[in-house]
Design a protein that fits this description.
It contains two helices and 36 strands. By secondary structure, it is mainly beta.
């Protein structure tokens, strides 16, 4: 075999070229890896700024929406200042921009083109949209001529306006003439009581808290640090009414004066003349305001004066931003001689006699007694000094512009001074009856207005119920926006009756059906005792309550289970709740079902609320 020692080593011809290809592949792989890392970094930066923008937009919308619609300051920080007081930074725009700044989006950062743009949502007064944007830097993409990209997020927040109490239409409470006429809303009249009336009689806020061991004050009060704009008002608060008016509308009060008529002939008529006689009278015949209850006509200190204050509401949620526009006091009268010819009254404070005068059958003075007055224009001429405008206030003499208003009513000592704890502790025993209404610019019932008691109300119903019958009373307006929330309804001292028997209370939805949550949600009913602030109270269990429906048995065999106490309902509103767009169809009612041989005469205080935060996001 021939020798191969002198032959050259054998080399595969493709090894050298393969090595060159590997270098190229590695280079491409490194470029791809770097590109991937670069894109990942840019994507991470984008995600960071996008998440930050989402958070900033949401926070800005939630912070600003509670100032809508009255305090919307425009789309830019240098827009109109609608803060109250001016410059305080309390309007929707200022709050939204400030909140966005706290979350890293400062409109002063021109280098990154930061923009925060609040804007109203068309067709909704309770919604605010906030757009937040800025340029975000790139790293890898900058090598390809893309140094930055825009990040933008939009959030829309809304708030649930305060629930209001009362009845459908533009009036709350009945006049004396309309008491008992359910067809015109004569279910009840509004009531407040004097300092020395016991709270167990039904007014849970105005009398001395020691009467009944109560610690309750109005939610809108200086004690709660909520209503501090006028230190001259009683610190425990008064009864408030939330009003939305069109341009030229007016706010009116019926029977603004405390005018008990002694123990003689009861005055169940309006203060006007029909064929020479006082009237018209109550359609129920015997219904009247019961203002003489507890009054000693020989002791003027047992009477009460009333004070009415009108505020312009600039924010639903900030009472410090309310601005006072009118305020007056009405001193009491002894109306024993209301049926004389001519009628006369006694100014309880001064002892002077006031003669009632008429023109064309209508009163020309003393419209504060069983008649209507415009709380912004009535000057009280000829009223014998009983009408007193507070220093610095005077009749406006003009109709109100469109807007939101608050009417507050307070019970004072007979001479107009504040009762304890802010002043002298007078022994006022007044059981005041009145009504409130709103009219449009033409003086007609206002179809485009809303009116309701704010947070709480005290009412008195004297409507006789047929033996073994029922009475349904509208109480609270629940708009469709509240679907899925939980409404709380509290009643103080419900179920008072004459004679033995039972009283069952049902809460009805606008359809007339008993309110029932969607399972597995249930209704909870608590006995809070004498103070509403008691939490959580004692759970009422069957047979006195039924967790599948809004029901409680208030009285059994003539014994009231809640005498002087608060009964607290927590009712989950179904998520499919939709009573329509007409506010007159949003009212939930309380139905009294009464056993045979029983008559219901009840003074009750009702308080309302929603569980949870009223402001929430719709889009983020």
């Amino acid at each position: 075999m021939p020798s191969r020692t002198n032959e050259l080593p054998y080399h595969k011809p493709w090894i050298k070229s393969q090595g060159g290809q590997a270098i190229v592949l590695i280079a491409f792989m490194m470029i791809a890896l770097m590109a991937g890392v670069g894109l990942a970094v840019d994507a991470g930066v984008g995600y960071y700024y996008n998440t930050s923008a989402e958070r900033a937009a949401a926070a800005a919308a939630l912070a600003g929406v509670i100032f809508m619609p009255s305090q919307y300051g425009g789309t830019q920080a240098n827009g109109p200042d609608t803060s109250i007081p001016a410059g305080a930074g309390y309007d929707a725009t200022d709050r939204a921009i400030n909140e966005a700044r706290k979350n890293g989006f400062d409109i002063a950062d021109a280098g990154h083109n930061v923009q925060v743009i609040p804007s109203p949502v068309a067709g909704f007064s309770n919604k605010l949209q906030v757009s937040v944007s800025r340029s975000a830097p790139t790293f890898f993409m900058a090598m390809f001529g893309v140094p930055s990209f825009q990040v933008k997020r939009v959030a829309i927040a809304t708030y649930l306006p305060p629930l209001t109490l009362g009845q459908p239409g533009s009036q709350i409470g009945a006049t004396v003439a309309d008491m008992g006429n359910v067809a015109v809303g004569g279910y009840y009249f509004m009531r407040n009581e004097g300092w020395s009336v016991t709270r167990s009689e039904g007014d849970a806020f105005t009398p001395n808290p020691a009467s009944g061991g109560s610690t309750d004050v109005h939610q809108i009060s200086a004690v709660k640090n909520v209503d501090t704009g006028d230190p001259g008002l009683p610190s425990r608060g008064g009864y408030n009414y939330l009003i939305n008016l069109p341009a030229g509308g007016s706010i009116q009060v019926y029977n603004a004066i405390n005018g008990p008529d002694n123990a003689g002939t009861k005055n169940h008529c309006n203060n006007s003349r029909v064929a020479g006689a006082v009237g018209p009278g109550s359609s129920g015949g015997s219904y009247y305001y019961h203002e003489e209850d507890g009054i000693n006509f020989g002791d003027k200190t047992t009477f009460n004066a009333e004070e009415f204050t009108v505020f312009k509401v600039n924010s639903y949620f900030i009472r410090a931003s309310d601005s006072k526009i009118s305020q007056f006091k009405v001193l009491p009268i002894d109306a024993t001689n209301w049926n004389a010819s001519p009628p006369t009254y006694t100014n309880v404070t001064s002892g002077a006699t006031i003669t009632q005068t008429y023109g064309g059958g209508n009163p020309t003075n003393m419209l504060t007694y069983h008649n209507w007055i415009n709380v912004n224009t009535y000057n009280g001429a000829g009223d014998g000094g009983t009408m007193q405008w507070v220093t610095g206030q005077q009749p406006l003499g003009y109709k109100l512009p469109a807007g939101q208003y608050r009417l507050r009513m307070d019970s004072l000592n007979y001479d107009g001074t504040r009762p304890s704890p802010d002043g002298a502790s007078g022994p006022g025993h007044s059981h005041k009856g009145y009504a409130v209404r709103v009219l449009d610019a033409a003086g007609n019932p206002c179809a485009n207005c809303t009116l309701g008691a704010w947070d709480d109300m005290c009412i008195y119903t004297t409507i006789s119920v047929p033996a073994g019958g029922s009475l349904t009373i509208p109480e609270v307006s629940v708009p469709p926006d509240d679907a899925g929330q939980t409404v709380t309804i509290d009643s103080c001292d419900p179920g008072d009756i004459s004679g033995g028997g039972n009283v069952d209370l049902y809460i009805l939805e606008p359809s007339g059906a008993v309110a029932r949550p969607i399972p597995p949600a249930t209704v909870a009913v608590y006995n809070l005792g004498t103070s509403r602030s008691t939490s959580p109270g004692t759970l009422v269990t069957p047979p006195l309550a039924d967790p599948t429906q809004a029901f409680v048995e208030a009285t059994t065999g003539g014994t009231s289970h809640f005498n002087g106490n608060w009964v607290h309902f927590e009712v989950p509103i179904p998520t499919n709740y939709n009573p329509g767009n007409n506010p007159n169809n949003w009212y939930w009612s309380v139905k009294y079902v009464i056993s045979a041989g029983v008559t219901a005469t009840d003074t009750i205080t009702v308080a309302i609320g929603l569980k949870g935060n009223p402001a929430h996001l719709l889009i983020s």
